[in-house]
Write a structure and sequence with these properties.
Distance between the termini: 16 Å
Shape: globular
């Protein structure tokens, strides 16, 4: 993983669209079945939409039937997890380890080999096709 990226919220607002800012910085959630990566099966890497940090290989993506892109495991060191008690629930939030942007949540109801379902917002990620360079956002 690249160096941690710390930007002011003012800078994030300049860099992100209002919809991206709502999800990535304000911990929002996009509606199910509307994200562009729900049915994507193309090889490559999913990276953080805010900073370009590589998050998931396409090979660990699966169809969960939930309406959000789902993965069995992140790349090593790519994400951090923390308790989310919003909406009167106890969930595990997933954030980018590089820029602390909200990506989604992880649940213990996924397929083997991990049994985990990393349920991500499409707007929180970009797909980089296999063979193309991954570009990290810098300050």
């Amino acid at each position: 993983m690249a160096d941690v990226l710390n930007l002011s919220e003012e800078e994030w607002r300049r860099r992100l669209s209002p919809e991206e800012y709502k999800v990535l910085r304000e911990r929002g959630t996009e509606a199910p079945h509307v994200g562009c990566y729900v049915g994507t099966k193309d090889p490559g890497t999913y990276v953080c939409a805010a900073c370009g940090n590589p998050l998931y290989q396409a090979g660990v993506k699966f169809e969960s039937g939930t309406g959000w892109p789902s993965f069995t495991e992140p790349l090593p060191g790519a994400v951090r997890e923390r308790l989310d008690t919003s909406h009167g629930m106890y969930r595990t939030e997933v954030v980018c380890a590089r820029c602390d942007s909200h990506l989604g949540h992880v649940f213990p109801d996924g397929p083997p080999p991990t049994g985990l379902r990393y349920c991500m917002n499409s707007i929180s990620m970009r797909h980089v096709p296999e063979g193309e360079p991954i570009e990290l956002v810098t300050s």
